[in-house]
Amino acid sequence: MSIPDGKPRKQIVLGAHLPGVNHHTVWQDPAAGSQIDVRSFAHLARTAERGFFDLFFLAEGLRLREHAGEIYENDVVGRPDTFTVLAALAGVTDHLGLAGTINTTFNEPYELAREFASLDHLSGGRAAWNVVTSFDAFTGANFRRGGYLDRSQRYERAEEVLLAVRALRDSWGPGDVLADSATGQFLARHGVGAFELHTNQFDVRGRFNVPRPPQGHPLIIQAGVSDQGREFASANADAIFSPFRRTDDAVPFYRDVKARAVRHGRLASDVKILPSAGVVLGDSAADAAEKARELTHQQVSPATALALAEQVWNRDLSQLDPEGPLPEFDADTTAPPRWRGRAIHDPDLNAVVARWREIAARGGLNLRETVIEVTARATFVGTPTTVADQLDDFVQNDGSDGFILHPPVVPTGLDEFVDTVVPLLQERGSLRTEYTGTTLRENLGLSPARAAQPA
């Protein structure tokens, strides 16, 4: 591939994601292992580190999802506690970043600061936090706080949680643990760990009991597509998840977020843009394409296609043929939602319906094919050489800084990529051949952590 004139070759950032049970995984594949066995997590993490990936990423769900009043068994996102898993992986890896998705709506700053500082210490500076909020009272019912926060309040709370967590960690300085055996003095000063914070959401003061972690502050990861989300993420995040799969959409998002980061006094390179992606490899283009077709039809069965369509139309579609056309009627915007525990990112359901119809018409797609198209991640399909070219082209032309790869089969779904594509990326100088930093922040080439900034 050709790099745009005058631009240095970028190093591709790679993350590995172990998903739960959902329409992106093929849990029934004969090669699939347990979604909750520690050996599954360890295998994928070790494979990622063998491929010189930057980080291992876990998503999280706080409640089992429901469809039409029943637990939806194909999207239960079942897995152990995030911090427990990541702490276990800290013991079987040496360089790989460890990123967890932890909610700001129902967790308190003190416990969040303590848990992430502890993980950063245990891993030698490899912790990262994907900061998310909850969108419904359905999830909140699991917690004492309960209730529902609208979008503006969710961002306000998330911003103030970040401010509070940073204040707690900053209550310890880099040299506060003196541990002078000659004098018997352990702490360098009085007042270590003292904090006090008064905001709209929090009125806290006390003593924080975990020394400053190796990274100062673990990496912050966010997803921000709306204007408010982009502002918040560009001001505070070290990495931002991008939802865009096509260069025409990805490049404007990349440039906009980087420009916002600069306006917030940061370097453009201090914010990494990372879309999720899947990879399907074959011995030839035709072989890979056939594997991709089979995979997507395993992921989105006829029943899954109808269930996902019902989320948009908010109606019972069980009488429809999933291999037939899209429903001719509009979404029911007056009835209670048929699906609980999964976010509809656009509150205007009929706008979503219109987009689906446009996609179906443009591609001549039936209902199931449309669901596959709109739910698919940025999948790169082809031989190892072709996929290496596709990944490199996307990054070098500023579609992103790298990718979070989602193998459809747990835990071995990343093995072939590491064995065949990684060496090709290394040969062209787009992927490291060794880890040069001691922390995740250093391996990503990021500036030292700074205090949280209001969006």
Please state the average pLDDT score.
89
Low-confidence stretches: none
Number of helices: 14
Helix content: 25-40%
Percent range for β-strand residues: 15-25%
Helix-strand string: EHEEEHEHEHHEEEEEHEHEHHEHHEHEHH
- Strand sequence of the main sheet, in spatial order? 1-2-5-6-11-12-13-16
Q: How many beta-strand segments?
A: 16
CATH superfamily of the largest domain: Luciferase-like domain
> Which structural category do the helix and sheet elements fall into?
alpha/beta
CATH uppermost class of the largest domain = Alpha Beta
Shape: globular
What's a concise summary of this model?
This protein is α/β, with parallel strands linked by helices.
List the helices and strands and how they pair.
Elements: E1 13-17, H1 38-50, E2 55-58, E3 66-67, E4 70-71, H2 82-90, E5 97-103, H3 109-123, E6 127-132, H4 137-140, H5 151-169, E7 177-180, E8 185-187, E9 194-198, E10 203-207, E11 219-223, H6 227-236, E12 239-242, H7 247-263, E13 272-281, H8 285-299, H9 302-313, E14 339-340, H10 349-363, H11 367-375, E15 378-382, H12 384-396, E16 402-405, H13 415-427, H14 440-443
Parallel strand pairs: 1-2, 1-16, 2-5, 5-6, 6-11, 11-12, 12-13, 13-15, 13-16
Antiparallel strand pairs: 3-4, 3-14, 7-8, 9-10
